[in-house]
Design goal:
The complex is a heterodimer. Chain A has 5 helices and no strands. Chain A is extended and about 60 Å long. Chain A starts with 21 loop residues before the first helix and ends with a helix. Chain B is α/β, with parallel strands linked by helices. In chain B, 35% of the residues lie in helices and 10% in strands. Chain B has an 8-stranded mixed beta sheet with strand order 6-5-4-3-2-1-7-8. In chain B, a hairpin with a 5-residue loop joins strand 7 and strand 8. In chain B, helix 3 packs parallel to helix 4. The two termini of chain B are 35 Å apart. Classes of the chains: A mainly alpha, B alpha/beta.
């Protein structure tokens, strides 16, 4: 059997991180749970944000979790794809905005 | 798209024995996950005992004009099991002599039973509080002889409950068959037109949502808001309540879970979401399911697994609500489907 760094079954064990530091682990999960409750933004909107961020931070566990969460909420694949594009656009924008630095450096060093 | 039942295809999962074997072995046998019985025992809920019977859910037969991918009945046009008039009469007798206040007709497509209208008329005369027909909607459009069903329902004050897995065509047709979405929309418009589902109307029209895949339903109220907005904005359709029902790992849905390698993850999700509070209100507590042949079961799912009700009075002709109250409810791992999260029943969430 091939060994990989990521094992899909590990997602189920996420809660176990409290075993090595109960106080911080519990605080994290309390915070995490609170963040995704309905508030000024709906839980549905937050699920789509989470899905976009999951792709940007390239977390396979989060992608699995929030694709499933979206399905459970009745979120359509069109909505999911647009959310991921929003994340991808920011990520590529963050790359491309550095082009200004490249252009300035280029101009400064060039005669 | 499915055309034939598991039974017609001679799929091993058409055998209830085989399904029960799958549910008893694997991750439950090797101790990876606790059995449903173990979880009940841990919560001092075993054996599961019923409350007084309030609902009689009658399966009029497995014949259906649709072949849905998730169907726990394995219903379809090729299924010939149909309740006879004699058994229907036994059902009427049982209602007359008991405190049952709700009749819930299901199938298959219950309307395809040749004695459906006779039965509804007779049961209507008895005057139960809530008289439900689980209509798949497309039957209303399927054939000329069914076109007047909305009026027939109205004349007998029938509470219509219909399935609608999503407010979009793509997801609905994938689960329920090509063309089902458009026909369902037409049928809903017909029902709305004569007053069903409208605000303040006594003609009750509720929808049932089953997830179209290996995931659990989310909060019933937020789904209801999404369904109401989308169906009204896109089609001007109104309905009363949305019931979110979890797919139980039996029959065609079990076949799908196994074939798509989602079975273990799905069972993990169900077991993790086990909610002892949901156990208190599961439908087997106050419902008796009558099979097409008159045998009694603790629920429609047990009927499909051929887990016959244990004890005396196990056939509708011998119906005795006092004796039935003494029984213990038959369970297996599929029961996790009714106790996950907010719970699930034919009336949606239970917590």
């Amino acid at each position: 059997m091939s060994k990989t760094y990521y094992d899909p079954a590990d997602l189920k064990k996420f809660g176990k991180i409290t075993e090595w530091n109960e106080e911080l682990g519990t605080k994290f999960f309390d915070y995490y749970g609170k963040v995704f409750e309905d508030g000024a933004l709906s839980a549905r909107e937050k699920s789509l944000i989470a899905l976009a961020v999951a792709h940007v931070v390239k977390c396979p566990y989060c992608i699995d979790a929030y694709t499933k969460d979206g399905l459970e909420r009745g979120i359509t694949k069109e909505e999911m794809m647009e959310a991921v594009h929003a994340g991808a656009a920011i990520e590529s924008g963050a790359t491309l905005v550095h082009v200004v630095q490249m252009m300035k450096k280029y101009d400064k060093l060039s005669m | 798209m499915l055309k034939k039942s598991l039974k017609q295809r001679q799929n091993p999962l058409s055998s209830s024995k085989h399904q029960l074997n799958v549910l008893a072995n694997g991750i439950f046998k090797n101790g990876e996950l606790p059995s449903f019985k173990t979880n009940l025992e841990k919560n001092n809920l075993f054996p599961l005992k019923p409350n007084p019977i309030e609902i009689l859910q009658i399966n009029l037969g497995y014949m259906c004009n649709q072949v849905c991918a998730h169907c726990h009945v394995d219903a379809g046009p090729d299924r010939k099991e149909i309740m006879t008039k004699k058994t229907m009469q036994h059902c009427l007798d049982a209602v007359k002599k008991s405190n049952i206040h709700t009749l819930d007709l299901t199938g298959g497509a219950p309307e395809m039973n040749p004695n459906f209208r006779w039965f509804v008329e007779e049961a209507h005369k008895i005057g139960v509080q809530d008289f439900i027909v689980r209509s798949n909607l497309t039957i209303i459009m399927a054939n000329k002889k069914y076109h007047d069903l909305p009026e027939f329902f109205k004349n007998h004050n029938i509470h219509v409950i219909s399935s609608m897995p999503h407010w979009t065509k793509g997801k609905t047709d994938k689960q329920r068959g090509d063309g089902v979405f458009n026909l369902s929309i037409e049928a809903l418009k017909k029902l709305n037109k004569i007053g069903y589902g409208l605000k303040n109307s006594n003609l009750k029209l509720d929808l049932v949502y089953n997830p179209s895949g290996a995931f659990l339903p989310t909060n019933q109220n937020s789904l209801e808001l999404d369904f109401k907005k989308a169906l009204y904005d896109d089609f001007g359709i109104e309905f009363h309540n949305l019931f979110a029902i979890t797919n139980l790992p039996i029959s065609r849905f079990l076949d799908y879970l196994l074939a798509s390698e989602n079975y273990e993850d799905y069972m993990y999700a169900l077991v993790e979401a086990f909610n002892p509070k949901a156990v208190e209100n599961v439908m087997c507590k106050n419902t008796i399911s009558v099979g097409w042949d008159g045998h009694l079961y603790d629920c429609d799912f047990n009927q499909m697994l051929n887990l016959k009700l244990k004890g005396p009075a196990a056939h509708i002709k011998d119906f005795d609500e006092v004796l039935l109250k003494e029984r213990s409810i038959q369970i297996s791992q599929h029961c996790y489907g009714c106790t996950a999260g907010a719970g699930s029943s034919c009336q949606g969430s239970v917590v």
